[in-house]
């Protein structure tokens, strides 16, 4: 669950979103299975397929290291949005923030999407510990809080 002092994932101050531990464990199990299959093939005289599968699995493990990053990946507050890879953008510099589905079928994923002064952010949220609908609700709530705070 997102780090929050209020049930439902919403805090008056901020919501902190992390990588999902469950999805990380599932990925590790899957990668270990592929590694085992690659080694098995290599040992049983399927040298080239076994080597290729083992090599691809090792590359997958290296590429998925960021999944085990325990730092907050996204922080949303009535001040703006912080993304670990892009930094902080205040609400007054953000436009059209929403959670959208990109792609079709099994290739589809949800992304946090918004415009700011320097470009557009499209952050894949599929490995985070929050559902797309919940993130969309948080964006709307914090944007509303920002509007109330700045209009007073």
TrEMBL record:
Protein name per its UniProtKB record: PH domain-containing protein
Domain of life of the native organism: Bacteria
Transmembrane segments: 24-44, 50-68
The species this protein was found in: Mucilaginibacter lutimaris
Keyword terms of this UniProt record: Membrane, Transmembrane, Transmembrane helix
């Amino acid at each position: 669950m997102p780090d929050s002092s209020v049930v439902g994932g919403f805090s008056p101050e901020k919501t902190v979103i992390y990588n999902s531990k469950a999805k990380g464990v599932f990925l590790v199990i899957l990668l270990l299975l592929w590694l085992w299959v690659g080694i098995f093939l290599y040992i049983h005289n399927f040298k080239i397929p076994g080597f290729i599968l083992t090599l691809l699995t090792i590359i997958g493990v290296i590429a998925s290291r960021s999944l085990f990053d325990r730092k907050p990946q996204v922080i949303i507050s009535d001040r703006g949005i912080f993304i670990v890879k892009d930094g902080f953008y205040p609400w007054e510099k953000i436009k059209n923030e929403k959670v959208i589905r990109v792609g079709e079928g099994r290739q589809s994923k949800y992304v946090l999407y918004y415009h700011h002064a320097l470009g557009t952010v499209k952050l894949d949220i599929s490995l985070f510990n929050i559902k797309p609908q919940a993130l969309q609700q948080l964006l709307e709530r914090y944007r509303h809080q920002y509007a109330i705070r700045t209009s007073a």
